[in-house]
Specification:
Blueprint lengths: L21 E5 L1 H12 L4 E3 L8 H12 L9 E4 L2 E4 L11 H19 L5 E6 L3 E5 L2 E3 L10 E5 L2 H14 L4 E6 L9 H21 L3 E3 L2 H9 L14 H15 L2 H17 L9 H22 L1
Parallel strand pairs: 1-2, 1-5, 5-9, 9-10
Antiparallel strand pairs: 3-4, 6-7, 6-8
Helix pairs in contact: 2-4, 4-5, 8-9
Amino acid sequence: MDLLLNFTPKKPDKTINYLQPMLFTGSCFADEIALYMQQHNFNVVAQPFGTVFNPVSIAAQLQRVINKQVYTANELVQRNELFHSWEHHTQFTNTNKDIALETINAHVIEAHQCLHHTNAVVWITLGSAFAYQYHGKIVANCHKYPATDFSKKLLSVVEITSALSKTIEQLEGKQVVFTVSPVRHTRDGLVENNRSKSRLIEAVHQLTEYFPNVYYFPAYELLIDVLRDYRFYAQDMVHPNSIAVKIVWEHLVNTCFDEQTQHFVTDMAKLLQMQQHKALHPETEEYKKFIQALQLKENELSQKYFS
């Protein structure tokens, strides 16, 4: 008896290799997948602007990265002794304007260097079609400014595809993998969340039909339609738990990666398990032998995959 729907995601026209540089941007679900790749020794640049949900902000950020357009001091805003950027998550906020600017621009340059490689892959996770406008301009984060300072807008499919199309064109044929975050934005309301997600999904599918280098990986459908059970969610009942993320990761590996990379992931997973081993008695001869075996394995895999 089958307890889950049988669902096999469609493979991309061109599968991905572990040696390709990866740039991740978008919602918090992008963090989860980027972390898996980092743990498995992929070449990853993750979230150069921090967590961002709406596609218009994501598109604008990527355009700045592509053009290596660094930020200037007059693009920061100050409130309560803190300096913020409207295009960044609060993790970039700082009491020192120069430090904030230096950190922001270091991430822009790092992401630009990643995209400088012709075989780079851009992973974009869209979180919500709702956006917030401050004096008529869409912002990536409200930075706890008064809610009355902002107007909330549900982006149309046309607005989403228009913004992202310009960015994809500037990427000059690089592989782009879209996902829609399966995290439910309950603060918007369940009905409103579904309206938001449906616009994101439709917009992405229109982009895949127009751009041959754009692919949609159905992480949203895997969680919402295949797993669809509270046992796959965290205590807040909206974020996927570690089991769910692992299942999505396994589907992604089998769907998006070439055969060599699938073997690479298997080997790196075994190495990671060894590296995460915690010794109860590190002073013993047995543990010293384990460390020697670990070093041998690291050298073996380095020779096998990176030399």
